[in-house]
Structures are given as C-alpha cells and as structure tokens.
Amino acid sequence: MPLRPLVLLTTLLHAYIGLRLLPALAGLPLAWPLLGSALLVSAVTMPLPFVGMRSRRRQFADVWKWIGLISMGWFSSLLVLTVVRDAGLLLGWLGASVSGVTLDGARWQLWSAAGVPLMASATSLVGLLNARRTAGVVRIDVPIRDLPSALSGFTIAQLSDIHVGPTIKRGYIQRIVNAVNGLGADMIAITGDLVDGTVAELRDHIAPLQQLKARHGTFVVTGNHEYYAGAHAWIDELRRLGLRVLLNEHVVLQTRNVKGAQTDEEVLESALLVAGVTDYTAGHFDAAHASDPHGALADAPPLVHTRVLLAHQPRSAPEAAEAGYHLQLSGHTHGGQFFPWNLFVPLQQPFTAGLHKLHEMWVYTSRGTGYWGPPKRFGAPSEITLLRLLRA
C-alpha cells in the first residue's frame, strides 16, 4: 500500500480508539493524558519504518524502524482490544435490556477503557521479550511406516522464518547458529523467509549461517520474502556461504556405511531423499521458479523409498502428499505470531503449527525461529525444531 493511504488509514484508526477510550477515562486524571500522548506517539511513529527505508542516513534508519515497529505491535493489540471492548459493552447493554437488570454503565466503561491500554502494553512487553530471546528447541518424533533401520533416529534441525532485517541482525543469527550446532543434527533445513532486505544490506548479518554444522549439511528453500528481496541474488549468496539451495530438485543422502552394505539395493534403501521446492507463490515472480513438488522428484532413484520435502508454505502439502513424500517441513505461518492473527491463518493455510497428517504424509509447520514486523510474539513462541525420524 502507498504510504499516504496507509498513514490516513492508521490515523483514522487511532482516532477511533481515542474516541472510544478517552472520554470514558475522564474519571481517572492521569489516564487520559497518558493514553492520549501514547496514541499521538503511536500515530506519528508507525509510518517510520517506511520512511526509514527511504532514508539515506543509515545510522538513523534502524532506530526509526525499531520505534515504528514497536508502535505497530502495541497499536495492533490496542485496536483489537478496543473492538472487543465495544462488542462486550454492546452485548452487556443488550443483555441488561432483555433481562431488566440495571448496570452501572459509567463504571463499566471507565474500568474497561482503563483495562484496554494496560492489557495492550502488558502483552506488547511480554511479546517483545519472547521475540528477542533465542528460540527454544522443540523436539518432535515423526513415526514413519516401514522406515529403514538405518534411518531410525535420523535427526533434522529445522529453522524457518528468521526474517533477518530491520530488527534482526548478526548477533541474533549467531545465537541461533550456536544453539543449532549444539544439537548435533544429521542435517539442517531452512524452510524459507530467511531475509527481509537485499544482499547488499544484509550480507554481513547473514554470514554466521556459514558456521552451521551437520553431518549431511544445510539445505535451504526459498520463501515468499526472498522473492520480495531479490531471490536470485540471495540464492547466489547462500550458495557462496556453502548452503545447498534446492530449487524444485532433490539430493540423496547416504546414511549408512556403503562399504558395509551387501548390495546396491541395500545401499539405496537405507538412503534418504531430501527434496526442496520454491515458494508456493514463486511463479508469480519468476515463471521458471514455479513450485513443483512432482518435478523435484525427477530422476529420483526408485529404490530410495523415504522422502522428505522442504516447502515454505503448508499449502504445498496436498500436491506433496500426492507425489508420495513421507514428511513435509514448512513454516510461513509464524503460528500466528500474536493474537488475534493466529485466528486468520487457517483462512489461507491448512495448518497453523505443529505436526499433522495429510493422507499418508506427515506435515510439520514451524512457528518460526524469528519474527516478522513488530518484535512481538504472544501465544506463539519461536522455535528451533529438532525432528527425529522413527519407525512406526
């Protein structure tokens, strides 16, 4: 959306909040000026991330973005809670009218108006702390029928939706890398939305990813934000760092000692096929990058039975299940990141977070290892996922 209409819209929404809350707070002498000042600061600073992007004074750009994004997170909760308050007051009035009960309307309006900014501020503070901490490790066992014994216990460390950009920098990435390396995973999967900016802007901040260590390496697929930021340049940069970017293609990982195998068939049956597809929407940006779970299996050895797909968006799952994968690893949803956006994810995606089964295929949807936009996570903690394959 262009900047001017966006500023007009957010200004009108701030005015709506002010009109609904400030008159009710007249009975609390300090509350009215505090909330009025906070609304004014929020309305002025929310456009700053967009202004900062156009600024040539780089030393101020990140500060502007931080202020604007924190305001955005607070305003988002404030707006939702104001709407909920209005709905609650309306239902209370209707209920009282029908039942004949007399309510102290002024008192209800006063304390509900005071509660809205307090709750918005509390959730924003907790959300900020949750977003800025190093993501915790979530351990998931995935039972796969007829899994070869050589693959039982195979581990995959999944990172997703880190969104290196305005508020996520090198130090944040370094902490994630250190945590992942401490897991000793057999392979590492990065399932898209790694960056929010160009290679020139973020090259130094993304550099710690070259320190990732796993027996079979690190594999990456593109998310929609890579295409916003210049996917081709990022693909080249990630490959330069030693990461394997899978663009509708696959690799076969040999998990047992080939010298100890009796036959070629035994070697292939104990292998793991890892495929990766471009983002579900990639074809809108580059027709040559149209996501293709079937095409990612082209020329796959038929004796390699166990197949894992890396696909940024969960909605790749129906086609992946049809193609015969056993497990799909995805992200994109952030688990909703913070209320109430988790309620809207199912309108676009089949899964919001966690392990689910679609026909004969498992789908694991990460809540994300970073965050997007406001530095805020509430009710949807970030995660580094360690998945372990087990025989069902």
TrEMBL record:
Bilayer-spanning residue ranges: 30-51, 63-84, 108-129
Protein name stated in the entry: Metallophosphoesterase
Domain Calcineurin-like phosphoesterase: 155-335
Native species: Variovorax ginsengisoli
PANTHER family, per database record: PHOSPHODIESTERASE YAEI (PTHR31302:SF31), TRANSMEMBRANE PROTEIN WITH METALLOPHOSPHOESTERASE DOMAIN-RELATED (PTHR31302)
Alphabetical keyword list: Hydrolase, Membrane, Metal-binding, Transmembrane, Transmembrane helix
Ranges in a coiled coil: none
Entry annotated with the keyword Zinc: no
